[in-house]
Design brief:
Order of helices and strands: HHHHEEEHHHHHEHH
Number of domains: 2
GO biological process, one term: proteolysis
Family: Belongs to the peptidase M48 family.
Keywords: Hydrolase, Membrane, Metal-binding, Metalloprotease, Plasmid, Protease, Transmembrane, Transmembrane helix, Zinc
GO molecular function, one term: metal ion binding
Distance between the termini: 5 Å
Protein name: Antirepressor regulating drug resistance protein
């Protein structure tokens, strides 16, 4: 069987089966770092397998067009015959059109992904500049934060050079010193872990493939798991109870509605608060989750790596 077909079948299998398997092992947040790695590995493997399959197909067609197909074996010779019109002009045009469409599709998706990332980065930069203007570039608040006058409790960070941590006046009034320290530790964990980059990548993929569950569900789950990773960092420094108290204090309903934070911002109490509180109070067993996630990650990475290695070591295998 043609290696390109094998890669496409592998990518399709991961796309269909991946979300259900990963959700089973990541739902409780027992091992959030392993879970994020597994989601990214499966997403990356699907993309690499699909691109490799398209590149292999196009490469075989182009090479065979140069009339060196008889020097190769299997489907290389067959594609050479098709490219030269050996099976009729209609088949020849269809194959060449498919190769051109595949190349154009890959280039278009890459350009759209780059554009989505650029827009997200620009939105973050514009919001950060607006925060500085709104605060009048006054001396930073506690822990180097920028304090916004708002009746809505909120704390979030924005990546950049320099990065900023924003806290509203209502949140500052609602938190005591220990809770504030825990919240700031949470936000700094996002910044040190470069969680914004991961969030931007998964968000761009979900916009590129809005009908593919692997990317849409994966973006939401990865965002939730990133919050749990930051919770763990804050809990190790300030105790889980302090983090829980801070999350509950920030999540209490307020009468006022403030402007929404940008999509690239990561806020301490912005996502899955109830689940995160339950997780901090009743820690799930992470041994089973780690084993399952490691197995899923290895399985996801093994297919494309093995296929590409075979193609490099023995080019003829690509057409067996």
């Amino acid at each position: 069987m043609n290696m390109a077909v094998c890669l496409l079948a592998y990518a399709l299998s991961l796309t269909v089966l991946g979300p259900g398997v990963l959700s089973r092992f990541t739902r409780a947040g027992a091992a959030p770092r392993f879970a994020i790695g597994a989601w990214l590995a499966v997403m990356g493997s699907v993309l690499v397998a699909a691109v490799a399959a398209a590149a292999l197909f196009v490469g075989q067609t182009v090479v065979s067009w140069g009339r060196i197909g008889p020097l190769l074996t299997g489907c290389m010779a067959g594609l050479g015959m098709i490219a030269r019109g050996g099976y009729g002009q209609l088949v020849q045009v269809a194959v060449l059109a498919l190769a051109a469409v595949s190349t154009l599709a890959v280039m278009t998706l890459g350009a759209r992904a780059a554009l989505a990332l650029r827009r997200m980065r620009r939105g973050t930069h514009d919001h950060g500049r607006a925060v500085r203007i709104a605060t009048g570039n006054t001396p930073p608040g506690p822990g180097g934060t920028f304090v916004l006058d708002s009746d809505r409790r909120g704390v979030y960070c924005l990546a950049g050079r320099p990065y900023i941590i924003v806290i509203t006046r209502a949140a500052l009034d609602a938190l005591n010193d220990a809770q504030l320290a825990a919240v700031l530790a949470h936000e700094r964990a996002h910044l040190r872990g470069r969680h914004h980059q991961v969030l931007a990548l998964t968000g761009a993929l979900s916009k590129l493939f809005p009908r593919v569950r692997l990317f849409t569900q994966g973006a939401g789950d990865v965002a939730r798991l990133l919050e749990m990773c930051a919770d763990d960092v804050a809990a190790r420094r300030h105790s889980p109870d302090t983090v829980v108290d801070a999350l509950l204090a920030l999540s209490l309903p307020t009468p006022a509605i403030a402007p929404a934070t940008p999509a690239a911002a990561l806020g301490a109490a912005g996502l899955a608060v109830a689940q995160r509180v339950e997780r901090l109070l009743f820690r799930p067993n992470g041994i089973t989750a780690r084993i399952g996630l490691m197995a899923a990650t290895v399985a996801a990475l093994l297919g494309p790596v093995l296929a590409i290695s075979l193609m490099i070591a023995q080019p003829g295998m690509a057409c067996i």
